[in-house]
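Dissemination and training. As part of the outreach component of the grant, students in the summer workshop were shown how a complex can be specified as a set of sequence lines and then modelled as a single object. The example used during the hands-on session is reproduced here so that future cohorts can follow it. Participants entered these lines:
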Amino acid sequence: MKNAETATTIDYEQIGLKVGIEIHQQLDTFNKLFCGCPTVLRDNEESCMEFSRFLKVTKSEMGEEDVAAREEVARSRKYVYLFYDTTCLVEADEEPPSELNLEALKVAVEIALLLHMRPVDEVHTMRKIVVDGSNTSGFQRTALVAMDGYIETEDGRVGIDTLCLEEEAAQKVEEKRGVVVYSLDRLGIPLVEIGTAPDIRTPHQAKQVAAKLGMILRSTEKIKRGLGTIRQDVNVSIRDGARVEIKGVQELELLDTIVENEVMRQINLLAIRDELKKRGAWVDKTVYDVTDIFADTQSKVLKKGLKQGRALASVLKRFSGLVGKEIQPERRFGSELADIAKLFGLGGIFHTDELPAYGISIEEVARLRDKVNADENDCIILIVGEENRAKNALERILKRAEYALEGVPEETRKALENGSTAYLRPLPGAARMYPETDVPPVQISGEFLKSIKLPELIDDRIERFKKEYGLNDELATVMARSSRHRLFEELVRDGHSPPLVVRILEMVLPSLEKEGINVISITDKHFKMVFNLLKSGKIAKEGIDEVLKVIAERPDITESDLNEIVSGVDVTEIEKFIKKLVQSKEEFIRDRKERAFSPLMGLVMKEFRGKVDGKVISELLRKEIQTLLNDR
Amino acid sequence: MLGKRVRVKRGENVYEGIVMPSTTGTFVLKLDSGYNIGLSSYDEVEVVEEQQESIKTKLEIPHVKGKPEVSIISTGGTIASKVDYRTGAVSSQFTAEEIVSEVPEIMNFCNVRAKLLYNILSENMKPDYWRELARNIYKDIQDGAYGIIVTHGTDTLAYTSSAISFMVSTPVPVVFVGAQRSSDRPSSDNVVNLVCSASTAVSDIGEVVVVMHGSTSDDFCYIHRAVRVRKNHTSRRDAFQTVNDFPIGVVSYPSGSISYQNDFISRGERKLELKDTLEEKCTLIKFFPGLDPDIIRFFYDRGYRGFVIEGTGLGHVSSDWIEVLREISDDSLITMTSQCINGRVCDRVYDTGRDLLKAGVIEGEDMLSETALIKTMWLLGNYELDDAKKMMKKNLVGEFRTRTGWYSEKC
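and obtained this result:
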């Protein structure tokens, strides 16, 4: 068997890599998608009421239960929901939904148009069955808004297949034995789901696409920002491999790594398959109760598990060495099996590729092999816990192990922090949808489309800022991305220096925030005041920090009050000071003539730095010197 | 075109899917992704595939030995339904097989016979349907049913259950049940309500009851006396509440174990009897300030002889009603209830009340207005007016009590 390939040596075209990305972005609307609740998140401690529910499996029209749904319910869990004074009976599934939020629809269509998509003429809200408890209703309300668009990347055009407007799910708070707690504050926040075609051919291009989509979304300025407000799912497949959906990639930076790692995983799983076939390996589905072998075990983990139930084992015939084989960074084939155990609420599994370890002795391993009729070529899977749970989990694990002989299973996985992935559930069936009859369809009329003004894309704005205002790349990027880009242009039009405005808006302010100053209270109006004072010379560039600090403390301050406080001096005072200075240095000035200016300027600045613009001082000083010299 | 798989061209775009019914006149397609979209125009439509027959799976109903037989009568509330994800259609399920396959937990308590009596929205119920239902329940009990479950739309469930309470003197539990969330959704309350109903249907109770969610959680149901229950919320699961009394009991979910909180008529305590005549010319009038007493004359002139007046406070209408009430009371049954819903009618506190009593109005005690109406229909249908007047003042099936408790959680 050949060694695991590393990402850098892979020829992606040759292995037939296909990647599609799905982006979920929360919208920053006033109300939720189907009720009048605000789109605010809450502390769980603020919950004023909680209630519990179960969900039942709904059967598909073929009479077959959906695989994903069945697996969720096989673990028959109770769901507890936290209710707040900012949630209502709609989130609690105790009242029919309101009509579709048109503010959200408008943002969705705006994004669709930016992606060159064609909106449908009439939006139909659907119920998409989701039985993991994250939706109180057991379905997510979702509507297909537009189709068939594209974006351009350095490596070519990538199709955008669909844009859906849907409700965000409830946030999982915790998962105890058989009980999952969800918080209802997030449920119902509008979300756009954008799905690309599987046109992406390299990990690098995947990252480009995600970055570009992110830029376009931010350009609307109508999306939520911050942790958890955007999630990326990635679909990866290679030739002979399988479509694998990776959920919940939070970090754009990790996207290429995740694709690389998934490709590696599929290649390695295919290599394991070939090796297993060569060995003539098979899975013995007998489940052995091996509790008695570990009656006096020194292994703490095992003891803990046994307290709750039994130890069960099965044999993977001629699998030896392969279960312990690394298929992704820090993940072995055994990790895939352990993921399944964890989903059943068990700690994980033990397998003989890694034993003796965890306090399990050589003798115990030997007795185990003896009991289950396994030799050195076999790998034994050992699982401990509550008997029924352990049995169900083990049966599911054996099915997965058996699939190793077929290749890569189609499944949904979750992204891990290091760029690897873990098993989550089988891929959901395609057609688990039916109409949400409580929500009437909405026409996207010509009038509706006309009311949408497309924003300037951030990337375009960066270029324009460079060209129009002579900003360098860094400043142009910072300013174009900022929510204060309009203020920037307004101030520049008033005659302020572009780099100075950028520095104050985007650098001074964040540094004040770091100092712990409450900069949220500083608004556009305040900045205009500050720049007015600056323009009239009443404050100096160097004094802006101080002025902003004053404003942060007293947001309702007027411009004249501000002027008085920050300067403490008016121009007449400076004039007096300069007059006196010039008189006292008369001899020096007569001696040095105009060359006396610099040293004297230093003296005045020493007194008034930060309070008055240097330009104003230098003018006054020059005038006074000239007057003296002319006086002759 | 409906149900056919088509390919639609519109400009540069091509859409493929199944043609769905439209409520707005647009061309609605169900795409392979499961989404429906509406198109207001298209250039070309091409049928790719004719309608597919949906595959029907044969359902089998197991028979559990030693479990009693319960009869489920459906009246149209969709307590069980199936979704066809291919077309998005939701169809109601009424056979025993279908109900049991939807809520297999029922089999923990009983074996099931099922009958679809009619399939109507509960707001379209009529006294005629109540009579037919009463006769069916009577017959099923006669045929040996150990308990009866009636599935019903929640809107008028309490009217029907009240009517059955008066019409059928039952030795076994007759359990009315509905769902506040439609049964096609995974969150439907039908599972909890049906499981608790099944447990109640094999219990020691021998009267007509309503079993519905006790809280917003899936943790327990209340067993309400049918003549004491009211739908007090438009949408919540726990909309049904016993008024002016304690519920008969609490059924835990999922165990189905019952703890009783009130007295009740026991299984076998009464003989099976059917009195299914109802006088339909009866009415319930809600008084409000300024309502012209001519409204009474209007009904009276059309032959109405049964009147329930939902008065204000302790049971009042304005003084200008006294005259007309006096005029008709000799050949009418007039009962006063209160729009306060909670509490007892007492017409002996204020002059108006005393005048009403003198005019021949009967105090409806702490009876629900809806129950008083049904009782009036039943009394006038089965008894002479004088007897009916006397019986209106008597508690017949638990519709009122002569003492009023505090009815809080603790006492």
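The first helix of chain A runs from residue 12 to 15. Students were then asked to discuss how this feature might be tested experimentally.
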